[in-house]
Backbone:
């Protein structure tokens, strides 16, 4: 077996060590380095403090916390109020958001941002763009361009897919910096675009949101987790930094 050059050996060992440290870090916690960089948790791992269902004062009954995860556990008989999209109490303008998620096979959900909460808008997605969550193996959306995992829903298709199968964890990162939007899927940047420009307005005009005059127009808003149409859904390690 050929030997690695010493420099490569050190790099491999360092990379492996960092991987092990990341794997051993308890869920829903921050390292000293993350705290110094301005990160904070949006989910404490114990309860749904800081969250409510869209247009409601409290989370719906189908949203729970189990084993350090936000869990959506609904069935065909659950009323909509029980699984209405989970929405952050706070609003954010410029931010870096990281979130881990998994769905049961064939599940479908999404992470919305810049959601404007008002009775004038019946759903989070009437105003907030969405990074799509979907199991690529069997969800109907997995067959539609711009509606696959990591896509900016119905607006921009991801250039590459790095998502894992249903039932396995994935990490999304959404960076919004004065209109510069970047989406990352499991550490890989898959979308890089700019909001609120003439080109952005053209994207909206050719999408399902064309009839929603305020969609994608707000420069500050809530984060929202979409109640899945089918299957169980989990979130954890939700953290954000702002500037």
Residues:
């Amino acid at each position: 077996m050929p030997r690695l050059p010493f420099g490569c050996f050190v790099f491999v060992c360092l990379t492996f060590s960092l991987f092990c440290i990341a794997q051993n870090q308890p869920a829903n916690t921050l390292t000293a380095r993350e705290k110094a960089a301005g990160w904070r948790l949006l989910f404490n791992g114990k309860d749904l403090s800081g969250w409510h269902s869209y247009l409601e004062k409290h989370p719906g009954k189908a949203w729970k916390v189990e084993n350090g995860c936000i869990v959506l556990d609904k069935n065909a008989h659950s009323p909509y109020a029980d699984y209405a999209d989970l929405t952050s109490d706070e609003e954010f303008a410029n931010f870096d958001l990281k979130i881990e998620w998994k769905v049961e096979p064939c599940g479908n959900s999404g992470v919305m941002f810049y959601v404007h909460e008002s009775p004038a808008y019946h759903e989070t997605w009437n105003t907030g763009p969405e990074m799509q969550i979907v199991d690529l193996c069997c969800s109907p959306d997995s067959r539609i361009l711009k509606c696959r995992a990591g896509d900016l829903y119905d607006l921009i298709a991801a250039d590459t897919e790095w998502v894992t199968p249903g039932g396995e964890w994935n990490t999304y990162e959404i960076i919004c910096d004065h209109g510069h939007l970047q989406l990352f899927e499991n550490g890989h940047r898959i979308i890089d675009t700019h909001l609120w420009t003439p080109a952005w307005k053209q994207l909206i005009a050719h999408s399902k949101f064309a009839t929603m005059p305020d969609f994608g127009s707000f420069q500050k808003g809530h984060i929202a987790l979409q109640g899945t149409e089918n299957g169980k859904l989990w979130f954890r390690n939700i953290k954000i930094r702002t500037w």
